[in-house]
Design goal:
The protein has 135 residues and is an alpha+beta fold. It has 5 helices and 6 strands; from the N terminus they run E-H-E-H-E-E-E-H-H-E-H. It has a 6-stranded mixed beta sheet. Strand 3 and strand 4 form a beta hairpin. 34% of the residues are buried.
Amino acid sequence: MNYWLIKTEPETFSWEDLVKLGKSMWDGVRNYQARNNLRQMKKGDLLLFYHSGKDSGIVGLAEVVKEHYPDPTAIEGDWSVVEIKPVLKFYRQITLAEIKKHPFLKKMVLVNISRLSVQPVTANEYNIIIELEGK
């Protein structure tokens, strides 16, 4: 199993939106590195669901339910989507500030390549995030 972090602005698509839908296509990615990360995702991989913007942080855990296929929203180019479903709403949000301060999370892609919307997370980083969340 692999772990990932996916970023979204809550005004565009929030954790609550995903929960209401039950599952959703993760579309609109227009960065080659992020697209390549989508293409590496496998069914069952876990995703840290991150709200970006003013109140940035990880708010929940989702799962890949369908592996990559062509993005039907793309007018041109070679873009991909995956389908995801919610697994768990976090008891509390793990803030970006908290992640940046943690000594074992300073090497996370989130801290070092902050604009990347789909990024890998190591098993160790994932486990630390889950511990921080408290469930």
